[in-house]
């Protein structure tokens, strides 16, 4: 589930979003790259925008970007906003291709590996597909959950659609026939916030959850391979090799990175780099790379300086999200113990009756016989 500020990276294309706006640039060191900016509040307004695809009236939103993603090749970029719109872009060069209306506010989206379709998950638990090749085409309902969806992913061969919901479930469905369920990945005890198919090991899935665990799955069978409890990690003394030991089918904790400012989002680049978006106008981005087995901040980097300068010049789009609460606290389910509350109130009523017994038939206070109070309590 996306927050108010976000970072996306595909190849050398980098996007930073904040509020209703985003900017796109390149991490290449050349100075002739064109900076592309877009503001959803000025997006195309359609006559049908007050009705969703189900024909029901929809309330006007704040235009804040809720989720965004690149296609696998980086040729396309898509976002959804709080005004229930799906906006599709071409990136080479940057151009808005379409503005379409969705039924409900969306929580996540992803492109199929073929880049022919775009899958959009919403708060009601449904997944709709939208054509990329026909940018003005309407959406098609593909599958549904009984609770809010928080993420959606596809297998690298486009055979499976994977969905994660608030009710601790991960579902693996056939893309060609989404009503056919291949498996469920069950084990989380709280909402599943993110899922990620491992690129170099397409049979494996990573998931994170409000139960403070990171889990590794063989998703076709639904088998849990490893569970990493994030609250009990210990940093190793030796440099790391890989975070994922595919041969032993388990995760390994390697290093903890600390930053001076609040971290909004992170994105890995193909060349083993980690970009960090943080709440600091003077240093909005940090770049870390592995050195002798340890991740270290890169102090001098031409691409980092160039992109940071672009963000400083457009900091207004991020200022408004500094105090926005984008945590997951609202996704935890409240528990109610009605029996305990009932017994407590019953005891309070009995205490009042013992202290102030009701009047007898002659208007005098009725005397309680010895043992009567305890008998009433036990009954």
Radius of gyration, Cα only, in angstroms? 27 Å
Annotated CATH homologous superfamily of one domain: YVTN repeat-like/Quinoprotein amine dehydrogenase
Beta-strand content estimate: 35-45%
Q: What is the C-level CATH assignment of one domain?
A: Mainly Beta
Biggest β-sheet, characterized? 4 strands, antiparallel
Helical/strand content category: mainly beta
At CATH level 3, the topology of one domain is Methylamine Dehydrogenase, Chain H
Give the helix level as a range of percent: 10-25%
How far the N terminus sits from the C terminus, by CA atoms, comes to: 51 Å
Strand order of the largest sheet: 1-2-3-4
Secondary-structure element string: EEEEEEEEEEEEEEEEEEEEEEEEEEHHHH
User: Total helix count?
Assistant: 4
Mean pLDDT over all positions: 86
The residue ranges in which pLDDT falls below 50 over 5 or more consecutive positions are 371-379
Strand segment count: 26
- Gross morphology is globular
Under the CATH scheme, the architecture of one domain is 7 Propeller
List keywords for this structure.
379 residues, mainly beta, Methylamine Dehydrogenase, Chain H, Thrombin, subunit H, four-stranded antiparallel β-sheet, 4 helices, 11% helix, disordered C terminus, nucleus, chromosome
Overview of the structural elements:
- The protein has 379 residues and is mainly β.
- Among the domains are: 1-44 and 60-144 and 301-324, Methylamine Dehydrogenase, Chain H; 148-235 and 247-253, Beta Barrel (Thrombin, subunit H), CATH 2.40.10.480.
- 11% of the residues lie in helices and 39% in strands.
- It is built from four helices and 26 strands.
- The protein has a four-stranded antiparallel sheet with strand order 1-2-3-4.
- The longest helix is centred in the last third of the chain and has 18 residues, at 338-355.
- The radius of gyration is 27 Å and the shape is globular.
- The chain starts with a strand and ends with a helix.
- Mean pLDDT is 86; it is low at 371-379.
- This is tRNA (Guanine-N(7)-)-methyltransferase non-catalytic subunit WDR4 isoform X2.
